[in-house]
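Kindly inspect this one:
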Amino acid sequence: MTGQTIQRSTLRLTAAAMFATALLLGGCSSNPSNAQIGATTGAVIGGVVGSALTGGSTVGTVAGAGAGAAAGHEIGKRMK
């Protein structure tokens, strides 16, 4: 894979994740908690990082998103 291909894949993944996040947060009937915001943000960032580190592999993206969501949830719970 070339560097340009990886950048395009990462850009597409980021755009898709941001769109999904907007849909999920838009569907909430109340304001999301800090833990929910942290989990969502962590999942997006983790997915992008996981994709970048593994050359765009699906497993790396999903693993990164899962780890990011867990970390973001814990960080969000501690914020007031």
Q: What stands out?
A: Residues 50 and 60 are 5 Å apart (CA to CA). The mean pLDDT is 85.
